[in-house]
Amino acid sequence: MDQIESTDRSPDMFKCGLCKCIAQEPRITVCCQKVWCGACLDHWLEGSETCPQCQSLAVNGDGSTGGCGEQRVKKLDQNSQGVHAMLWRVYGNMRVRCPHKGCSWIGDMLSYESHCRDCAQGLAASAS
């Protein structure tokens, strides 16, 4: 299939619907399978019990986002299973660049947070 140029739309799939950035500490609402930043979704759910995308109930009567059988929000991480484990691998392998001006680092999403925390360009900018 030489006519395929690129099918990688991973960055779009992992954009948070609230802040429009690549999701940090990603979570998925089970109702519509949308990816969100953990912090953005937590903030949203402080003021609403519904999914920001489809308005389905995202919070149980006890205020939780679910337990074993009724989980309505799933965290994507190294403990994810099934399809969510595959999504975690795609997320972790996405190539991203450092947001700090003057830094040329490019790496995978799993290394991004630790790089940003230790980036000399970022540390210099915050010291000024």
Task: Describe this protein with a few key phrases.
two-stranded antiparallel sheet; 34% helix; alpha+beta; 2 domains; 128 residues
Task: Tell me the layout of helices and strands.
Layout: H1 10-13, E1 27-29, E2 34-36, H2 38-47, E3 73-75, H3 83-93, E4 95-97, E5 106-108, H4 109-118, H5 120-127
Antiparallel strand pairs: 1-2, 1-3, 4-5
Domain RING-type: 16-55
InterPro entries: Znf_RING (IPR001841), Znf_RING/FYVE/PHD (IPR013083)
Protein name: RING-type domain-containing protein
Proportion of residues in helical segments: 25-40%
Strand content: 5-15%
Q: How many domains is the backbone divided into?
A: 2
CATH class of the largest domain: Alpha Beta
* Total strand segments: 5
Quick recap:
With 128 residues, the chain is of the alpha+beta class. The chain has two domains: 10-93, Zinc/RING finger domain, C3HC4 (zinc finger) (Herpes Virus-1, 2-Layer Sandwich); 95-128.
